[in-house]
Structure prediction request, 282 residues.
Amino acid sequence: MSKPSKFPDQKLKQPGDQHKMNPEPEIISKKYKSANKLKGKTALITGGDSGIGRSVAVHFAREGARVAIVYLEEDKDAQKTRQLVEDAGSECLLICGDLKKESFCRQAVNKCIDHFETLNILVNNAAVQFPKDDIKDISSQQLKETFETNIYPYYLVTREALDHMKAGDVIINTSSVTAYRGSKHLVDYAGTKGAIVAFTRSLSGMLAPKKIRVNGVAPGPIWTPLIPATFDDVTDFGQDTPMGRAGQPSEVAPAYVFLASEDSSYITGQFIHVNGGEIIGG
Ligand code: NAD
Ligand code: MG
Prediction:
C-alpha cells in the first residue's frame, strides 16, 4: 500500500466562472480603428470567453475575422463574447470543453473546421493559476492541474491545428511577465509560462520553412476575471509597474491583431511585452 501523500489534494478554485467584476474590464477602446486586417481569416482562441481572450475575439471580429472560442464551462461569459463578436459584424462559434483532455483538444479543432472549413489563426491562451506562498502548499494535484491546463494543450491543439494551416497562417501564444522575471507567489504557473516561451521559440524555427509564423504576448497585470477569482486582495494589483496601474484587456488585444496580421510578416519566435513598462530580458 502506498503511503498517504504529505501534500493532500485540495479543492482547486476555478477562475472566472461568470465572475462579476467591479469595475468591468474594458474589452475594446472606443478609439480603436479597424482596417480589415484579418478579412476572410478564421481564428480559434482558447480561453476566449472572458478577459484577454474575449478582447482578442472582439478585436479580430472588428478586423474581419470569423472566430471560434474554446472555454471550460462559463456559458454566460461565452454567450456574451458571441454577442460582442456579432455586434462587431462577424460570426462566433462556441466550443465548450476541458482542454486537459487530449480528445477534446482534437475535437475543438475539428469543430472549428467543420463549421468554418478553415483555420488561419490559432491563439493558445487558456490558463489557470493557484497562488501559493510556499512550495510545500503546492499539492501534486495543483501541479498537475496547472501544467495540464497551461502547457499541454498548447502542444496538443497546435498539433491538430497544423493539419489545417498553411503558408501565411499564424500561431500566437499567451505567456506572462512571470516567465521572464519569475513570481514567488506563482512558482508552478510561472514554470508553465516559461515553457510557453521556449515552445514558441522552438516551434517558430520548426515552422519557418512552412511560412507559418509563431509568436507570443507576455502580459503584465491585466484586469480580467482570473485576477479577483484567484487573488485574495486586488487593491494593489498592477500598482508596482512603472506605469503604476493594471492594464485593460483592450490594451493587450491590439498586440494579437498585429501578430495575426501581415503587419508582422517578418517577425517570428518573438514576444510582445504588454506589461506597463517593466523591462525584462528577451
Ligand atoms: P480568464 O480567466 O478570463 O481566461 C482564461 C480562460 O481559460 C477561462 O475563461 C477558461 O474558460 C479557460 N480555461 C481554463 N482552464 C480551461 C480548461 N481546462 N479547458 C478549457 N478552457 C479553460 O483570464 P485571462 O487573464 O484573460 O487569461 C488569459 C491568458 O492571459 C492566460 O494564459 C493567462 O495566463 C495570461 N495572463 C494573464 C494575466 C493577467 O494579469 N490577467 C497576466 C499574464 C498572463
Ligand atoms: Mg472565463
About this structure: The pocket of nicotinamide-adenine-dinucleotide (ligand 1) is lined by residues 15-16, 47, 49-53, 70-72, 74, 98-100, 125-128, 149, 174, 176, 219, 221-222, 224-227 (CB under 6 Å). Residues 187-207 form the longest helix (21 residues). DSSP finds nine helices and seven strands in the chain.
